[in-house]
Amino acid sequence: MTPESPASDERRSRKQGGVEIRVARLSDAEAITLNANLPGYRAGTLRLPFQSVEETQQWMEKPAPGSINLVAVLDGQVVGNAGMRRHAGRQIHTGHLGMGVHDDFTGRGIGSALLAALVDTADNWLAIKRLELTVYVDNGPAIRLYEKFGFETEGRLRAFAFRNGEYVDAFAMARVRM
């Protein structure tokens, strides 16, 4: 996120299928928190229940170096967000992705629009060769989305996280441009 004005954000935003993709602003913190606290959204992430707006504001105010944070806006409502953090040093060619979509807006192309924006930025602006992510093995829609963008499963991470009273596995997935 950058402290730029909404006018400069608009110059860099893009619409895809009626969904506007733009840089996340501090003023989006409440909407992002609302989405993150929804059961479906949260189930696909490492987030704990009852995340506060202040916690969201903290990571938005101090983004990791080389990170990009985007939101998807539909009819004035933030319906998804995604981010990419570029690694440093000998892994400068690598970025790690994370994303989520409001429970009521899944299956409508919002994840595709967010992922397309991140992949375009990685490929055409940052020369990132390797994009990686983790996804729970039971998140079929997300896995299909990632595969559509060229991500491949590289391994299974057993007992990756504790969710809903049990340990769940995740896939390590990556997209490597040759």
Automatic annotation (TrEMBL):
CDD domains xrefs: NAT_SF
InterPro entries named in the record: Acyl_CoA_acyltransferase (IPR016181), GNAT_dom (IPR000182)
Keyword Electron transport found: no
UniProt superkingdom: Bacteria
Keyword Acyltransferase: yes
Keywords of this entry: Acyltransferase, Transferase
Pfam family, one: Acetyltransf_1
Residue ranges of every copy of the N-acetyltransferase domain listed in the record: 19-174
The EC number(s) this enzyme carries: 2.3.1.-
GO MF annotation list: acyltransferase activity, transferring groups other than amino-acyl groups
Name listed for the protein in its UniProt record: Putative acetyltransferase
